[in-house]
Amino acid sequence: MSSLGASKKTSAREKESELLEREDFDAGPSNLDCIEPGLWLVTDIPSEDLLSHFEHTSEFIRTGQEQGAVLVHCYFGVSRSATVVIAYIMKKYELSFEDAFERVKSRRRFVGPNPGFTSQLHLYETMKWQVDKANVQFRMYRLHVAATQVKKVKILPQNCMDVVKSDPSLITVKPEPLVYRCRKCRRIVASASNLLPHIPKERPSWTDKKWSTEDREAMMLCSETYFVEPLAWMSSVTQSLQGKIHCPKCKSKLGSFSWIMGCQCPCGSKISPAFYLVPSKVEWSNMVQNVQVTV
User: Fold this and answer.
1) N or C end of the chain, less CB within 10 A?
2) What domains lie within the chain, and their CATH numbers?
3) Average of per-residue pLDDT values in the chain
């Protein structure tokens, strides 16, 4: 056999060795890899919200390692379980997604989080290895997850109720200094922190890291429409796909919402899902009145 022929045959063998084989997909104890002492990953079905559970899974793995060993598994051990393990390695060693991915991949060569899980891991890194529920990017992400669920079951499921924020008119010890009121009856309908920003002609995405930066004031944000998170006083948002938003006090129409179709702002930006207040129907105020007096 010529050296060229032998070289081609060797190259073909090497390529075959890199391919997943049937035994790699058989869920069972015969196919697992030790990522580090006391942490094992097994032989996945993507498109799930894993990010919201990273704190719990990381604590579970940490505790398990201290007591002995932990086996992390899904169907194939390629995407879902690998994502959970990578998130744990990121948090434990404060690593970037890329560095943690390479560390896990060096021990189990065919791990490969799907694009959705990869984006979740990048956001986890942006939030400094913790789930920051106040982070705008994370709030956008949870709305995206909730909208996906609403499309399936036609109502907001219980496990997504966290996207509905508390009524900003409730008495509180530390009220926000800037609020939005119904222009007709002056009832508080939103706080400044409930607003979800967007840039003219640009469709905002939870995967865009710029929403997690502290320098959003330097951005040319649109104010032609006030897009907000769903709020507890918006009674129909948990039971309907879309509808009108009315002031809970005087019943004036303040805006609309849509989980599926979204809404296009006059600036040209398409927002989905969308919960918006029309600027002419509300007014902003820094007169704090919803404060609880403490002695």
Assistant:
1) C
2) 18-126 (3.90.190.10), 156-285 (2.170.150)
3) 86
